[in-house]
Amino acid sequence: MTVASLAITPEAARVAVEEAAVRTYGEATQHLCKHHRIRLSKQMLETLTQTVGTYWRACDDQTLQAAKTARKAPSATISAKRCCVFADGVMVHTDGDWHETRVGTVRSDDVHNVEHKSSIARQCSVDELGDDLWRKACQMGYCQAETKAFIADGGQWLWNQAQRRFGSAIHILDFWHVCDHVSQCAKAFFGEGSDASRQWALAVRGTLRAGLVTDALSQVEALNPRRSPAKRKAKHELITYLTNNRDRMDYPRYERLGLPIGSGEVEAQCKTLVQARCKQSGMRWSRAGLEPLLRVRCAIKDGSYDRQFGHWPTNLAAWQFRRKQQARHAA
Protein backbone atom coordinates (compact mmCIF):
# COMPACT_ATOMS: atom_id res chain seq x y z
CA MET A 1 0.00 0.00 0.00
CA THR A 2 1.40 3.40 -0.97
CA VAL A 3 0.58 6.45 1.12
CA ALA A 4 1.92 9.79 -0.06
CA SER A 5 4.32 7.90 -2.37
CA LEU A 6 5.66 5.84 0.52
CA ALA A 7 5.56 2.07 0.48
CA ILE A 8 4.68 1.23 4.08
CA THR A 9 2.48 -1.29 5.83
CA PRO A 10 -0.58 -0.11 7.80
CA GLU A 11 0.95 -1.19 11.11
CA ALA A 12 4.25 0.55 10.42
CA ALA A 13 2.37 3.69 9.41
CA ARG A 14 0.31 3.58 12.62
CA VAL A 15 3.45 3.38 14.76
CA ALA A 16 5.33 6.00 12.74
CA VAL A 17 2.59 8.63 12.80
CA GLU A 18 2.05 8.18 16.53
CA GLU A 19 5.77 8.70 17.17
CA ALA A 20 5.81 11.80 14.98
CA ALA A 21 2.90 13.29 16.92
CA VAL A 22 4.67 12.82 20.24
CA ARG A 23 8.27 13.74 19.30
CA THR A 24 9.88 16.14 16.88
CA TYR A 25 10.18 14.65 13.40
CA GLY A 26 13.95 14.29 13.78
CA GLU A 27 13.69 12.56 17.17
CA ALA A 28 10.88 10.34 15.89
CA THR A 29 12.90 9.03 12.93
CA GLN A 30 15.72 8.05 15.28
CA HIS A 31 13.34 6.41 17.74
CA LEU A 32 11.57 4.47 14.98
CA CYS A 33 14.85 3.14 13.63
CA LYS A 34 16.27 2.20 17.04
CA HIS A 35 13.18 0.72 18.72
CA HIS A 36 10.92 -0.40 15.85
CA ARG A 37 13.35 -0.97 12.96
CA ILE A 38 11.29 1.37 10.80
CA ARG A 39 13.52 3.49 8.59
CA LEU A 40 12.00 6.70 7.30
CA SER A 41 13.57 10.03 6.48
CA LYS A 42 12.43 13.09 8.41
CA GLN A 43 10.71 14.45 5.30
CA MET A 44 8.98 11.16 4.58
CA LEU A 45 7.71 10.92 8.15
CA GLU A 46 6.42 14.48 8.07
CA THR A 47 4.63 13.84 4.77
CA LEU A 48 3.03 10.67 6.11
CA THR A 49 1.84 12.39 9.30
CA GLN A 50 0.40 15.33 7.39
CA THR A 51 -1.37 12.99 4.99
CA VAL A 52 -3.10 11.09 7.78
CA GLY A 53 -3.96 14.24 9.75
CA THR A 54 -5.32 15.97 6.66
CA TYR A 55 -7.42 12.91 5.88
CA TRP A 56 -8.95 12.91 9.34
CA ARG A 57 -9.62 16.65 9.11
CA ALA A 58 -11.41 16.01 5.82
CA CYS A 59 -13.52 13.33 7.51
CA ASP A 60 -14.47 15.83 10.23
CA ASP A 61 -15.46 18.38 7.61
CA GLN A 62 -17.51 15.78 5.75
CA THR A 63 -19.41 14.91 8.94
CA LEU A 64 -20.11 18.58 9.58
CA GLN A 65 -21.25 19.32 6.02
CA ALA A 66 -23.51 16.25 5.97
CA ALA A 67 -25.17 17.44 9.19
CA LYS A 68 -25.67 20.94 7.79
CA THR A 69 -27.15 19.57 4.57
CA ALA A 70 -29.53 17.34 6.51
CA ARG A 71 -30.24 20.19 8.96
CA LYS A 72 -29.67 18.02 11.98
CA ALA A 73 -26.92 17.55 14.53
CA PRO A 74 -24.13 15.02 13.95
CA SER A 75 -24.89 11.66 15.58
CA ALA A 76 -23.83 11.22 19.19
CA THR A 77 -21.37 8.48 20.07
CA ILE A 78 -21.95 8.93 23.80
CA SER A 79 -25.19 8.98 25.79
CA ALA A 80 -24.36 11.92 28.04
CA LYS A 81 -26.27 13.19 31.05
CA ARG A 82 -23.90 16.13 31.58
CA CYS A 83 -21.82 17.86 28.90
CA CYS A 84 -19.34 20.70 29.40
CA VAL A 85 -17.78 22.62 26.52
CA PHE A 86 -14.58 24.63 27.06
CA ALA A 87 -12.68 26.90 24.67
CA ASP A 88 -9.46 28.91 24.77
CA GLY A 89 -6.47 29.81 22.61
CA VAL A 90 -2.67 29.77 22.54
CA MET A 91 -0.24 31.60 20.26
CA VAL A 92 1.98 29.60 17.90
CA HIS A 93 4.50 30.92 15.36
CA THR A 94 3.15 30.04 11.91
CA ASP A 95 3.70 31.40 8.42
CA GLY A 96 6.16 34.01 9.61
CA ASP A 97 4.21 35.47 12.52
CA TRP A 98 2.39 34.60 15.75
CA HIS A 99 -1.17 33.35 15.27
CA GLU A 100 -3.72 32.02 17.72
CA THR A 101 -4.31 28.29 17.75
CA ARG A 102 -7.81 27.80 19.12
CA VAL A 103 -8.55 24.83 21.33
CA GLY A 104 -11.90 23.35 22.31
CA THR A 105 -12.49 20.58 24.82
CA VAL A 106 -15.70 18.65 25.48
CA ARG A 107 -16.14 16.66 28.67
CA SER A 108 -19.18 14.39 28.99
CA ASP A 109 -20.39 12.22 31.86
CA ASP A 110 -22.45 9.30 30.59
CA VAL A 111 -25.41 7.62 32.26
CA HIS A 112 -22.99 5.35 34.16
CA ASN A 113 -21.06 8.37 35.49
CA VAL A 114 -18.07 7.51 33.29
CA GLU A 115 -16.19 10.60 32.12
CA HIS A 116 -15.30 11.04 28.45
CA LYS A 117 -13.11 13.85 27.13
CA SER A 118 -12.13 14.90 23.62
CA SER A 119 -10.55 18.01 22.11
CA ILE A 120 -10.00 19.86 18.88
CA ALA A 121 -7.06 22.15 18.16
CA ARG A 122 -7.31 24.38 15.09
CA GLN A 123 -5.50 27.31 13.57
CA CYS A 124 -8.54 28.60 11.79
CA SER A 125 -11.13 31.36 11.84
CA VAL A 126 -13.41 31.86 14.82
CA ASP A 127 -16.43 30.63 12.86
CA GLU A 128 -14.59 27.51 11.67
CA LEU A 129 -13.63 26.76 15.25
CA GLY A 130 -17.24 27.25 16.36
CA ASP A 131 -18.56 24.88 13.70
CA ASP A 132 -15.99 22.22 14.51
CA LEU A 133 -16.52 22.52 18.26
CA TRP A 134 -20.27 22.17 17.73
CA ARG A 135 -19.61 18.99 15.71
CA LYS A 136 -17.42 17.59 18.46
CA ALA A 137 -19.92 18.51 21.20
CA CYS A 138 -22.79 16.84 19.31
CA GLN A 139 -20.74 13.68 18.92
CA MET A 140 -20.02 13.81 22.65
CA GLY A 141 -23.73 13.86 23.50
CA TYR A 142 -24.30 17.60 23.96
CA CYS A 143 -27.75 17.69 22.37
CA GLN A 144 -29.17 14.90 24.55
CA ALA A 145 -27.50 15.92 27.83
CA GLU A 146 -29.77 16.96 30.69
CA THR A 147 -27.22 19.51 31.92
CA LYS A 148 -24.93 21.36 29.54
CA ALA A 149 -22.51 24.23 30.04
CA PHE A 150 -20.05 26.41 28.13
CA ILE A 151 -17.08 27.56 30.22
CA ALA A 152 -14.50 30.14 29.11
CA ASP A 153 -12.67 33.30 30.12
CA GLY A 154 -13.82 36.78 29.14
CA GLY A 155 -12.75 36.74 25.47
CA GLN A 156 -15.56 38.20 23.39
CA TRP A 157 -14.99 35.80 20.49
CA LEU A 158 -15.63 32.92 22.87
CA TRP A 159 -18.96 34.29 24.07
CA ASN A 160 -20.03 35.13 20.53
CA GLN A 161 -19.57 31.47 19.65
CA ALA A 162 -21.31 30.39 22.84
CA GLN A 163 -24.36 32.51 21.99
CA ARG A 164 -24.42 31.37 18.39
CA ARG A 165 -23.89 27.63 18.78
CA PHE A 166 -24.35 26.78 22.45
CA GLY A 167 -27.26 29.01 23.38
CA SER A 168 -29.03 26.24 25.31
CA ALA A 169 -26.03 25.78 27.61
CA ILE A 170 -25.36 27.48 30.94
CA HIS A 171 -22.63 30.06 30.28
CA ILE A 172 -19.95 30.20 32.98
CA LEU A 173 -17.15 32.75 33.25
CA ASP A 174 -13.91 31.19 34.51
CA PHE A 175 -13.65 32.24 38.16
CA TRP A 176 -9.84 32.35 38.18
CA HIS A 177 -9.80 34.85 35.32
CA VAL A 178 -12.21 36.95 37.34
CA CYS A 179 -9.75 36.81 40.24
CA ASP A 180 -6.94 37.99 37.95
CA HIS A 181 -8.98 41.03 36.89
CA VAL A 182 -9.75 41.86 40.52
CA SER A 183 -6.05 41.58 41.41
CA GLN A 184 -5.05 43.95 38.60
CA CYS A 185 -7.42 46.58 39.94
CA ALA A 186 -6.22 46.04 43.51
CA LYS A 187 -2.60 46.45 42.40
CA ALA A 188 -3.41 49.75 40.67
CA PHE A 189 -5.09 51.18 43.78
CA PHE A 190 -3.09 49.73 46.68
CA GLY A 191 0.26 48.67 45.23
CA GLU A 192 1.49 45.27 44.16
CA GLY A 193 1.96 42.82 47.04
CA SER A 194 0.69 45.16 49.76
CA ASP A 195 -1.54 43.98 52.60
CA ALA A 196 -4.23 46.44 51.56
CA SER A 197 -4.15 45.07 48.02
CA ARG A 198 -4.48 41.47 49.19
CA GLN A 199 -7.25 42.24 51.65
CA TRP A 200 -9.34 44.25 49.17
CA ALA A 201 -8.93 41.66 46.43
CA LEU A 202 -9.81 38.84 48.83
CA ALA A 203 -12.98 40.63 49.91
CA VAL A 204 -14.16 41.25 46.34
CA ARG A 205 -13.31 37.71 45.26
CA GLY A 206 -15.30 36.34 48.19
CA THR A 207 -18.30 38.43 47.20
CA LEU A 208 -18.09 37.20 43.60
CA ARG A 209 -17.54 33.61 44.72
CA ALA A 210 -20.87 33.88 46.54
CA GLY A 211 -22.50 34.99 43.28
CA LEU A 212 -23.20 38.50 44.57
CA VAL A 213 -22.16 40.47 41.50
CA THR A 214 -24.14 43.59 42.38
CA ASP A 215 -22.46 43.77 45.79
CA ALA A 216 -19.04 43.28 44.19
CA LEU A 217 -19.74 46.13 41.78
CA SER A 218 -20.58 48.34 44.75
CA GLN A 219 -17.22 47.46 46.31
CA VAL A 220 -15.44 48.52 43.13
CA GLU A 221 -17.56 51.66 42.73
CA ALA A 222 -16.51 52.73 46.22
CA LEU A 223 -12.88 53.06 45.12
CA ASN A 224 -11.67 56.66 44.80
CA PRO A 225 -9.18 57.19 41.92
CA ARG A 226 -8.11 60.58 43.35
CA ARG A 227 -7.34 62.11 39.95
CA SER A 228 -5.12 59.20 38.97
CA PRO A 229 -5.63 58.20 35.30
CA ALA A 230 -4.16 54.75 35.96
CA LYS A 231 -6.53 54.09 38.85
CA ARG A 232 -9.49 55.50 36.94
CA LYS A 233 -8.70 53.21 34.02
CA ALA A 234 -8.30 50.13 36.27
CA LYS A 235 -11.62 50.85 38.00
CA HIS A 236 -13.45 51.38 34.71
CA GLU A 237 -12.03 48.19 33.19
CA LEU A 238 -13.07 46.04 36.16
CA ILE A 239 -16.57 47.54 36.30
CA THR A 240 -16.98 46.95 32.56
CA TYR A 241 -15.71 43.37 32.84
CA LEU A 242 -18.03 42.50 35.72
CA THR A 243 -21.01 44.22 34.14
CA ASN A 244 -20.56 42.50 30.78
CA ASN A 245 -20.26 39.09 32.43
CA ARG A 246 -22.68 39.41 35.36
CA ASP A 247 -25.03 36.71 33.96
CA ARG A 248 -22.15 34.20 33.87
CA MET A 249 -21.09 34.37 37.52
CA ASP A 250 -23.74 32.55 39.56
CA TYR A 251 -21.08 30.23 40.98
CA PRO A 252 -23.11 28.71 43.87
CA ARG A 253 -25.76 27.58 41.37
CA TYR A 254 -23.19 26.08 39.02
CA GLU A 255 -21.64 24.06 41.82
CA ARG A 256 -25.04 22.79 42.96
CA LEU A 257 -25.50 21.47 39.42
CA GLY A 258 -22.13 19.73 39.55
CA LEU A 259 -20.59 22.07 36.98
CA PRO A 260 -17.04 23.44 37.00
CA ILE A 261 -16.43 27.14 37.63
CA GLY A 262 -13.04 27.20 35.90
CA SER A 263 -11.77 26.57 32.38
CA GLY A 264 -8.72 24.65 33.53
CA GLU A 265 -9.74 21.69 31.36
CA VAL A 266 -9.02 23.52 28.12
CA GLU A 267 -6.06 25.48 29.49
CA ALA A 268 -4.40 22.14 30.23
CA GLN A 269 -5.14 21.02 26.66
CA CYS A 270 -3.53 24.18 25.30
CA LYS A 271 -0.35 23.16 27.09
CA THR A 272 -0.35 19.41 26.42
CA LEU A 273 -1.85 19.37 22.92
CA VAL A 274 -0.22 22.45 21.45
CA GLN A 275 2.62 23.92 23.48
CA ALA A 276 4.37 20.66 24.42
CA ARG A 277 4.88 19.66 20.78
CA CYS A 278 4.62 22.88 18.77
CA LYS A 279 6.26 25.60 20.88
CA GLN A 280 9.67 24.11 21.49
CA SER A 281 12.74 26.31 21.06
CA GLY A 282 13.17 27.64 17.53
CA MET A 283 10.11 25.92 16.08
CA ARG A 284 8.39 27.59 13.13
CA TRP A 285 5.34 26.16 11.39
CA SER A 286 3.05 26.62 8.45
CA ARG A 287 -0.67 26.29 9.01
CA ALA A 288 -0.70 23.50 6.42
CA GLY A 289 1.82 21.57 8.50
CA LEU A 290 0.45 22.42 11.94
CA GLU A 291 -3.25 21.56 11.63
CA PRO A 292 -2.81 17.91 10.48
CA LEU A 293 -0.30 17.27 13.27
CA LEU A 294 -2.66 18.72 15.88
CA ARG A 295 -5.49 16.55 14.53
CA VAL A 296 -3.36 13.45 15.10
CA ARG A 297 -2.35 14.63 18.59
CA CYS A 298 -6.01 15.11 19.50
CA ALA A 299 -6.76 11.51 18.50
CA ILE A 300 -3.87 10.23 20.62
CA LYS A 301 -4.91 12.36 23.59
CA ASP A 302 -8.55 11.21 23.66
CA GLY A 303 -7.72 7.55 23.02
CA SER A 304 -9.33 7.29 19.57
CA TYR A 305 -6.10 7.03 17.60
CA ASP A 306 -5.97 3.24 17.17
CA ARG A 307 -9.68 3.04 16.35
CA GLN A 308 -9.47 5.79 13.77
CA PHE A 309 -6.41 4.21 12.23
CA GLY A 310 -8.51 1.05 11.81
CA HIS A 311 -10.04 2.72 8.74
CA TRP A 312 -6.61 2.64 7.14
CA PRO A 313 -5.69 1.92 4.37
CA THR A 314 -8.97 1.43 2.42
CA ASN A 315 -10.69 4.70 3.29
CA LEU A 316 -7.48 6.70 3.03
CA ALA A 317 -6.72 5.25 -0.41
CA ALA A 318 -10.19 6.14 -1.67
CA TRP A 319 -9.83 9.68 -0.30
CA GLN A 320 -6.46 10.13 -1.99
CA PHE A 321 -7.91 8.89 -5.26
CA ARG A 322 -10.74 11.43 -5.06
CA ARG A 323 -8.29 14.25 -4.31
CA LYS A 324 -6.22 13.37 -7.37
CA GLN A 325 -9.32 13.32 -9.53
CA GLN A 326 -10.42 16.71 -8.22
CA ALA A 327 -6.95 18.15 -8.86
CA ARG A 328 -6.99 16.89 -12.46
CA HIS A 329 -10.44 18.36 -13.09
CA ALA A 330 -9.40 21.68 -11.54
CA ALA A 331 -6.40 21.82 -13.84
Describe the structure.
Helices cover 58% and strands 15% of the residues. Helix 6 (175-190) packs antiparallel against helix 7 (195-209), helix 7 (195-209) runs antiparallel to helix 8 and helix 8 runs antiparallel to helix 9. The protein has a 5-stranded mixed β-sheet with strand order 5-4-3-6-7, sandwiched between helices. The chain is built from 14 helices and 7 strands.
Tally of helical segments: 14
Order of helices and strands: EEHHHEEEHEHEHHHHHHHHH
Question: What is the approximate shape?
Answer: globular
The end-to-end distance, rounded to whole angstroms, is 27 Å
- Average of pLDDT: 91
Query: How many domains?
Result: 3
Strand order, largest beta sheet: 5-4-3-6-7
Largest sheet: 5 strands, mixed
Structural class by sheet pairing and helices: alpha/beta
Rounded to an integer in angstroms, the radius of gyration calculated over CA atoms is 23 Å
Strand proportion, as a percent range, falls in 15-25%
Q: What kind of oligomer do you see?
A: single chain
Uncertain residue ranges: 1-5
Strand elements, count: 7
Helix percentage range: 55-70%
Secondary structure layout plus pairing:
Layout: E1 2-3, E2 6-7, H1 10-22, H2 25-36, H3 42-70, E3 80-94, E4 97-110, E5 115-122, H4 126-139, E6 147-152, H5 156-165, E7 170-173, H6 175-190, H7 195-209, H8 213-221, H9 229-244, H10 251-256, H11 264-278, H12 287-302, H13 305-309, H14 314-330
Parallel strand pairs: 3-6, 6-7
Antiparallel strand pairs: 1-2, 3-4, 4-5
Helix pairs in contact: 1-2, 1-3, 1-12, 2-3, 3-12, 4-5, 6-7, 6-9, 7-8, 8-9
